[in-house]
Design goal:
It is a single chain. The chain is an alpha/beta fold and 216 residues long. The chain is built from eight helices and seven strands; from the N terminus they run ααββαβαβαβαβαβα. β3, α4 and β4 form a beta-alpha-beta unit. The radius of gyration is 16 Å and the shape is globular.
Protein backbone atom coordinates (compact mmCIF):
# COMPACT_ATOMS: atom_id res chain seq x y z
CA UNK A 1 0.00 0.00 0.00
CA UNK A 2 2.84 2.40 0.88
CA UNK A 3 4.56 1.80 -2.44
CA UNK A 4 1.40 2.18 -4.53
CA UNK A 5 0.12 5.35 -2.82
CA UNK A 6 3.57 6.97 -2.93
CA UNK A 7 3.73 6.76 -6.72
CA UNK A 8 1.27 9.60 -7.39
CA UNK A 9 0.82 12.88 -5.44
CA UNK A 10 -2.96 12.64 -5.76
CA UNK A 11 -2.82 9.65 -3.39
CA UNK A 12 -0.68 11.35 -0.74
CA UNK A 13 -3.65 11.87 1.59
CA UNK A 14 -4.25 8.11 1.50
CA UNK A 15 -0.54 7.50 2.05
CA UNK A 16 -0.60 9.69 5.15
CA UNK A 17 -3.72 7.93 6.39
CA UNK A 18 -1.80 4.66 6.11
CA UNK A 19 1.12 6.20 8.00
CA UNK A 20 -1.28 7.37 10.71
CA UNK A 21 -2.88 3.92 11.08
CA UNK A 22 0.49 2.17 11.12
CA UNK A 23 1.91 4.58 13.71
CA UNK A 24 -1.14 4.18 15.91
CA UNK A 25 -1.07 0.38 15.77
CA UNK A 26 2.69 0.09 16.33
CA UNK A 27 2.54 2.47 19.29
CA UNK A 28 -0.45 0.73 20.81
CA UNK A 29 1.17 -2.70 20.51
CA UNK A 30 4.32 -1.29 22.11
CA UNK A 31 2.39 0.15 25.04
CA UNK A 32 3.09 3.75 24.02
CA UNK A 33 0.35 6.38 24.15
CA UNK A 34 0.39 10.06 23.16
CA UNK A 35 -1.36 12.87 25.00
CA UNK A 36 -1.70 16.04 22.91
CA UNK A 37 -2.27 19.37 24.63
CA UNK A 38 -3.38 22.17 22.30
CA UNK A 39 -3.00 25.82 23.25
CA UNK A 40 -5.42 26.59 20.44
CA UNK A 41 -7.42 24.28 18.21
CA UNK A 42 -5.75 23.84 14.81
CA UNK A 43 -7.54 24.15 11.51
CA UNK A 44 -6.41 21.04 9.65
CA UNK A 45 -7.69 22.48 6.38
CA UNK A 46 -5.00 25.13 6.73
CA UNK A 47 -1.40 24.65 5.65
CA UNK A 48 1.16 24.86 8.46
CA UNK A 49 4.86 24.48 9.09
CA UNK A 50 5.29 22.40 12.24
CA UNK A 51 8.56 22.90 14.15
CA UNK A 52 9.46 20.57 17.00
CA UNK A 53 12.37 19.44 19.13
CA UNK A 54 13.83 16.08 18.15
CA UNK A 55 15.03 13.42 20.60
CA UNK A 56 13.50 10.13 19.47
CA UNK A 57 12.52 8.09 16.43
CA UNK A 58 9.05 8.13 17.96
CA UNK A 59 8.81 11.82 17.04
CA UNK A 60 7.84 10.72 13.53
CA UNK A 61 4.89 8.75 14.89
CA UNK A 62 3.92 11.74 17.05
CA UNK A 63 3.24 13.76 13.90
CA UNK A 64 1.84 10.96 11.76
CA UNK A 65 -0.87 10.49 14.39
CA UNK A 66 -1.36 14.20 15.05
CA UNK A 67 -1.57 15.56 11.49
CA UNK A 68 -4.29 15.09 8.89
CA UNK A 69 -4.54 15.22 5.10
CA UNK A 70 -1.55 16.28 3.07
CA UNK A 71 1.66 16.70 5.06
CA UNK A 72 5.28 15.79 4.55
CA UNK A 73 8.54 15.63 6.48
CA UNK A 74 11.99 17.03 5.85
CA UNK A 75 14.80 14.83 7.16
CA UNK A 76 18.43 13.83 6.77
CA UNK A 77 19.44 12.21 3.50
CA UNK A 78 20.69 9.07 5.29
CA UNK A 79 17.02 8.05 5.49
CA UNK A 80 17.04 7.45 1.73
CA UNK A 81 18.87 4.19 2.45
CA UNK A 82 16.29 2.94 4.94
CA UNK A 83 14.23 0.14 3.31
CA UNK A 84 10.93 1.57 4.62
CA UNK A 85 11.52 5.28 5.14
CA UNK A 86 13.33 5.44 1.83
CA UNK A 87 9.97 4.90 0.09
CA UNK A 88 8.76 8.18 1.59
CA UNK A 89 11.94 10.21 1.18
CA UNK A 90 12.10 9.36 -2.49
CA UNK A 91 8.51 10.50 -3.00
CA UNK A 92 6.35 12.48 -0.56
CA UNK A 93 9.04 13.54 1.95
CA UNK A 94 12.17 15.64 1.38
CA UNK A 95 15.72 14.59 2.17
CA UNK A 96 18.52 17.05 2.81
CA UNK A 97 22.28 16.78 3.26
CA UNK A 98 22.94 18.86 6.36
CA UNK A 99 26.51 19.61 5.24
CA UNK A 100 25.60 20.88 1.77
CA UNK A 101 24.23 24.37 1.13
CA UNK A 102 23.17 23.31 -2.37
CA UNK A 103 21.21 20.36 -0.97
CA UNK A 104 19.57 22.61 1.62
CA UNK A 105 18.63 25.16 -1.07
CA UNK A 106 17.03 22.47 -3.24
CA UNK A 107 15.23 20.93 -0.27
CA UNK A 108 13.65 24.19 0.86
CA UNK A 109 12.78 25.12 -2.71
CA UNK A 110 10.90 21.84 -3.00
CA UNK A 111 9.28 22.37 0.41
CA UNK A 112 8.11 25.80 -0.73
CA UNK A 113 6.52 24.31 -3.84
CA UNK A 114 4.76 21.69 -1.70
CA UNK A 115 3.48 24.33 0.71
CA UNK A 116 1.98 26.22 -2.22
CA UNK A 117 0.14 22.98 -3.12
CA UNK A 118 -1.36 22.83 0.37
CA UNK A 119 1.01 20.28 1.90
CA UNK A 120 1.93 21.08 5.49
CA UNK A 121 5.61 20.66 6.37
CA UNK A 122 6.97 18.91 9.47
CA UNK A 123 10.55 19.78 10.33
CA UNK A 124 12.91 19.44 13.27
CA UNK A 125 14.94 22.67 13.15
CA UNK A 126 17.79 21.27 15.26
CA UNK A 127 18.61 19.14 12.21
CA UNK A 128 19.44 16.03 14.22
CA UNK A 129 19.07 14.21 17.52
CA UNK A 130 21.68 15.53 19.95
CA UNK A 131 24.31 13.07 21.25
CA UNK A 132 23.86 14.38 24.79
CA UNK A 133 21.73 12.38 27.25
CA UNK A 134 19.40 13.61 28.67
CA UNK A 135 18.75 15.59 25.48
CA UNK A 136 19.14 19.36 25.37
CA UNK A 137 17.46 21.66 22.89
CA UNK A 138 20.08 22.45 20.26
CA UNK A 139 20.59 25.48 18.05
CA UNK A 140 17.99 25.88 15.32
CA UNK A 141 18.71 26.11 11.62
CA UNK A 142 17.37 29.17 9.78
CA UNK A 143 15.60 27.47 6.87
CA UNK A 144 12.08 26.81 8.20
CA UNK A 145 11.69 30.34 9.57
CA UNK A 146 12.75 32.03 6.36
CA UNK A 147 10.44 29.69 4.46
CA UNK A 148 7.47 30.45 6.72
CA UNK A 149 7.91 34.18 6.16
CA UNK A 150 8.56 33.85 2.43
CA UNK A 151 5.42 31.75 1.88
CA UNK A 152 3.25 33.51 4.50
CA UNK A 153 2.63 30.19 6.24
CA UNK A 154 1.63 30.03 9.90
CA UNK A 155 4.23 28.23 11.99
CA UNK A 156 3.24 25.83 14.78
CA UNK A 157 5.84 25.22 17.53
CA UNK A 158 5.52 21.79 19.14
CA UNK A 159 7.17 20.70 22.40
CA UNK A 160 7.67 16.92 22.56
CA UNK A 161 8.30 16.88 26.27
CA UNK A 162 9.14 13.36 27.47
CA UNK A 163 9.30 10.97 24.52
CA UNK A 164 13.05 10.57 25.09
CA UNK A 165 12.29 8.87 28.43
CA UNK A 166 10.36 6.19 26.54
CA UNK A 167 12.74 5.83 23.61
CA UNK A 168 15.83 8.02 23.21
CA UNK A 169 17.13 8.24 19.64
CA UNK A 170 16.62 4.75 18.14
CA UNK A 171 16.47 3.05 21.54
CA UNK A 172 19.68 1.09 20.95
CA UNK A 173 21.66 2.54 23.88
CA UNK A 174 19.09 2.83 26.66
CA UNK A 175 16.32 0.62 25.34
CA UNK A 176 12.60 1.34 25.10
CA UNK A 177 9.70 0.97 27.47
CA UNK A 178 5.92 1.48 27.50
CA UNK A 179 4.62 4.82 28.68
CA UNK A 180 2.68 7.99 28.00
CA UNK A 181 4.25 10.72 25.87
CA UNK A 182 3.13 14.31 26.37
CA UNK A 183 3.11 16.70 23.42
CA UNK A 184 2.33 20.40 23.81
CA UNK A 185 1.13 22.10 20.64
CA UNK A 186 1.59 25.85 20.84
CA UNK A 187 -0.64 28.44 19.25
CA UNK A 188 0.16 29.00 15.54
CA UNK A 189 2.32 32.03 14.80
CA UNK A 190 1.05 34.22 11.98
CA UNK A 191 3.90 35.23 9.66
CA UNK A 192 1.90 37.32 7.17
CA UNK A 193 3.11 40.61 8.65
CA UNK A 194 6.75 39.57 9.00
CA UNK A 195 9.61 40.41 6.63
CA UNK A 196 12.79 38.50 5.83
CA UNK A 197 14.71 40.54 8.40
CA UNK A 198 12.44 39.12 11.11
CA UNK A 199 13.51 35.50 10.56
CA UNK A 200 16.04 35.50 13.42
CA UNK A 201 13.46 36.93 15.81
CA UNK A 202 10.96 34.30 14.71
CA UNK A 203 13.55 31.57 15.21
CA UNK A 204 14.31 32.81 18.73
CA UNK A 205 10.62 33.05 19.60
CA UNK A 206 9.96 29.48 18.47
CA UNK A 207 13.03 28.24 20.34
CA UNK A 208 11.84 29.88 23.57
CA UNK A 209 8.30 28.56 23.18
CA UNK A 210 9.43 24.99 22.62
CA UNK A 211 11.97 25.15 25.45
CA UNK A 212 9.41 26.63 27.86
CA UNK A 213 7.54 23.31 28.00
CA UNK A 214 10.68 21.17 28.09
CA UNK A 215 12.08 22.70 31.29
CA UNK A 216 9.00 22.17 33.46
Amino acid sequence: MYYLTSRNPKYYSILNLCRKANSFCCSLLSGVWYNYYYEEKLNYKQTYIYCANHSSNLDIMVFCIMCHGKFHFMGKDELLNNPVLGIFFKTIDISVNRDSKISAFRAFKKAGENLEKGMSLIIFPEGKIDDHYPPRLGEFKNGPFRLAIDKNISLVPVSITNVWKINWDDGAKYGSKPGICDIYVHKPIDTSKLADVDSDLLKEKVFQLIESELVK
